[in-house]
Design a protein that fits this description.
The chain has 368 residues and is an alpha/beta fold. 30% of the residues lie in helices and 27% in strands. It folds into 2 domains: 12-226, Alanine racemase (TIM Barrel), CATH 3.20.20.10; 241-367, Lyase, Ornithine Decarboxylase, Chain A, domain 1. The protein has helices spanning 12-26, 36-40, 44-53, 64-72, 90-95, 105-118, 139-151, 173-189, 202-207, 340-346, 351-357; strands at 6-11, 30-34, 58-61, 79-81, 98-102, 122-129, 137-138, 155-161, 196-200, 215-218, 241-246, 249-253, 258-259, 265-266, 271-276, 293-296, 299-304, 312-317, 326-333, 336-338, 364-367. Strands 1, 11, 12, 15, 16, 17, 18, 19, 20 and 21 form a 10-stranded mixed β-sheet that branches. Helix 7 (139-151) packs parallel to helix 8 (173-189) and helix 10 crosses helix 11. The longest helix is centred in the middle third of the chain and has 17 residues, at 173-189. The two termini are 16 Å apart. 40% of the residues are buried. The structure holds pyridoxal-5'-phosphate.
């Protein structure tokens, strides 16, 4: 069917199911889907289109450039740019109707100057730092910055938000501290109903029973790649990301022969090996050399030798495999699965980084 050598498969049908499951749990709270970093590697445009058709309320991106990409693809949803901005980006942020994160007085003044001069209005969200210490103003400053934004007609204050630092560690004392700081701030300013307050990410939604405020901001959960076991209410959520290839070469190697660069694997007996045409140049980590596994004909086989830029070798021992056989690097085949979390563990990282590491070289195929 496909004439690709290697590719990524995205299950949009399951993605829509994941969105429905989340919706059923958050009820009337707004749903903001984080599509930064090419939608966690899933493809920003296709994912945004699916989200738009499922009536997700908001999209969040990291930067101006990601926002422009969405607007160029005619995505009409509200888009929040989570990161900071530079003065020379203000025009494009406003012209593309992107909602801007305000995390300092300095940037708020730059925005105001621009809007005043050009006779424009800009949509903003105030970022409060409650413990992440990345961007955002301290609560002490947030109070006056809030008033500054609210009172100026150049600003349309759409939201107030903060971000958890340790939400994936359920009992971490910082979680309660951050919630308390955020809630105390909200209590003090009593924002009007039209202002969207938001703080909940995937880890917080899975781990805490507290209020979700007015919106949740989720990436890992809708993509089904959260690194911990999901609570029962989200047990229908599944990963939608698979990496597949096809056997490209077959050979028999004698005993005591080295395989691949540096001969980091030496055969102990004659074995059959197959070559798979994908490598670290596609984003399949070289850290998986000699420790990773792939699925062929419904069975797990070990990667042997060093993973190269475009290819690697697999030991099929004395079993059969043929050129053209489907190889699953991440995902399911028959009743076997190689999960993103398993790969992340082997690479000593988290699922998020594995997803982001696959680049444009691999075509993405969308299953509807
Ligand atoms: C990426 C991001 C999120 C989403 O995090 P998940 O763990 O994927 O749900 C939420 N808020 C901010 C500020 C982010 O950068």
């Amino acid at each position: 069917m496909l004439n690709y050598s290697s590719w990524i498969e995205i299950d949009l049908k399951q993605f829509k199911k994941n969105i429905k499951t989340i919706r059923a749990n958050i009820k009337k709270v707004r749903f903001c889907l984080c599509v930064k970093a090419n939608a966690y590697g899933h493809g920003i445009i296709e994912i945004a289109r699916a989200a738009q058709s499922e009536k997700v309320d908001y999209l969040a991106v990291a930067s101006l450039l990601e926002g422009i990409k969405l607007r160029e693809a005619k995505i009409k949803m509200p888009i929040l740019v989570l990161g900071t901005f530079h003065e020379n980006q203000i025009k494009d942020l406003i012209d593309n109707d992107l909602e801007i994160t305000i995390s300092s007085f300095f940037k708020a003044r730059l925005l105001k100057e621009y809007c005043k001069k050009m006779g424009k209005k800009c949509k903003v969200h105030l970022k409060v730092d409650t413990g992440m210490r990345r961007i955002g103003v301290k609560v002490e400053t947030a109070f006056s910055l809030y008033n500054y934004l609210k009172e100026d007609k150049n600003f349309s204050l759409k939201g107030i938000f903060s971000h958890f630092a340790c939400a994936d560690i359920k009992d971490h004392p910082m979680n309660a501290i951050q919630i308390k700081i955020f809630e105390k701030f909200l209590k003090k300013i009593k924002p009007s109903k039209s202002i969207i307050c938001h703080m909940t990410n995937t880890a917080a939604l899975c781990n805490f029973k507290h209020d979700f405020y007015d919106m949740v901001r989720l990436g890992a959960l809708p993509f089904g790649c959260y690194s911990k076991d999901l609570p029962k209410r989200f047990s229908d959520i599944k990963s939608i990301f698979s990496v597949k290839s096809k056997v490209s070469y077959f050979k028999v190697v004698e005993k005591d022969q080295g395989i691949s660069y540096g001969h980091s694997f030496i055969t102990k007996k004659p074995i059959r090996i197959v070559t798979i045409p994908i490598g670290y140049g596609d984003g399949y980590s070289r850290a998986l050399s000699n420790i990773g596994e792939v699925l062929i004909r419904g069975r797990k086989f070990p990667i042997i030798g060093t993973i190269c830029m475009d290819q690697f070798m697999v030991n099929i021992d004395n079993r059969e495999a043929f050129i053209g056989d489907e190889v699953v690097l991440i995902g399911r085949q028959e009743n076997q699965e190689i999960s993103i979390n398993k790969i992340a563990k082997l690479c000593k990282t988290i699922s998020y980084e594995i997803l982001c590491s696959f680049n444009e070289r691999l075509p993405r195929v969308y299953i509807n």
